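Entry 14. Ran structure prediction on the chain below.
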Amino acid sequence: MSGLAGGLVAAAAAVAGLALAAPASARAPDDVFVMAKEIDDIITLDPAEVFEFSGAEYSANVYERLVYFDVDNVQELKGGAARSWTVSDDGRTYTFHIREGQTFHSGNPVTAFDAAYSLRRVVLLNKSPAFILAQFGFTPENVRERIRAVDDSTLTIETDRAYAPSFFLACLTSGVGSVVDSKLVQAHDKGGDMGHGWLRTRSAGSGPFKLRMWKPNELIILDGFADYWRGPPAMTRVVIRHIAEPGTQRLLIETGDIDVARNLGPDQVAGIGGNPGLRVRYARKGALYYLGLNQNNPYLRRPEVKQALRYLVDYDGIAKTILRGSAVVHQSFLPQGFLGAIDDRPYRLDADKAKRLLEEAGLGAGFAVTMDTRNTRPALDVAQSIQATFALADIRLEILPAGGKQVLTKYRARNHDIYFGRWGPDYQDPHTNASAFASNPDNSMGAEFKTLAWRNGWEAPDLTAMTAAAVFERDPDRRATLYAEIQRRHQQDSPFVIMFQEVELVVERARLSGLVLGPSFDSNFYRAVVKN
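Output, structure tokens:
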């Protein structure tokens, strides 16, 4: 480890202990970018498996994807590892031309063979995000035939049907479109795992930064990649510290020990007002806060109970106080900014109406239920507010707080009653959220596509069919109408209480510029960061 890296790790350890003692200043050099952020949700660093907010942001800065969207105009697609592409007349075959002169962090050249290997690997490993590619008909049996390199610079991909090209390309802007160094990864294959065991804690990318160190629930250190094809990043190093306590983040940003605080609450942001050395930025995101009601629970599967719970959330009160400035009330599964998004707000806090619905369900005396949530703010504050308003209808809610990894693991196994969490789109097309919230082709434990509807045990054959059909509608207006109809049905019948759309509050030092805060959780980029 270099002297600088050793100093940064020591500084990071001091930061972690700030809540207990005041350390000496640990201000970073001008070419080192230090950020405080909750990163305890990271489970893996393998882009074929990453499916969490923090992991996806990490991946977007370490790996180059075939295609990108413009953060200011998500409908405009740009070339990443692929400089250009064409679509066949029948709409099924895509030909990508790989950009010349790119190299991986290892020094190996980036080729179409690497791109083909990377996409096949996603399908063959079949981890959480694999459905993004599998929905185009790719299977372990056919993926080698349908995704192939013609030569070093030419990649062809054949889908099973003629989808709207914007839909397919949008999927490639997600993490599954990341190109990995096939030679390096294959060199670490163990038992046919395609290097998965090795890559879960390491990197093999060609993006502007390369992984130097990851300590789970503590920190990530990235080094700038001097040979990145767009040019080297201004920062030679990025340090991301897991600091869960907003008060600690505020102290660190005020003293100059970090450059950016990513998880300050409204109270902390209000408290730094007027500080000329700091700047507050507001970035509207596609992430949604929602409750997932497990339909395996005999109480929560009753239609009247699902409706009653929608009337037992103080939407406006939470938005104006706990989430002040960091979210807006939103009650449908497509965030504003997406094709087909609606503004309908059919629910408000109405305990009397909720009680009548519970009486219709034969539960006038209420019932007891648990809710899993992350043990951080503002999640706990929102959970406590919901606990209080549920009690207005005699619903006895027990909150079960835990770390991000624990909560997600339990949720994905369908072992929850109610899950309170946050969901972000995987790509910039309405199907990403429609397929998650409104589609469940197979509700069995061995299902291939384990969507959010699946996680909550909800069988929805009509909406599943409507969602599947909407991806083939090429007329944008007609497609928007279809998604609006799906959302309105979903608001009435689903086991989801969708409450808020996120607005990310970021506090940065005034001398910092260039941090890109895009509309998605994986479109936040560090490459252009400079300290003036």
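Residues 1-24 have pLDDT under 50 and may be disordered. Will compare against last week's run tomorrow.
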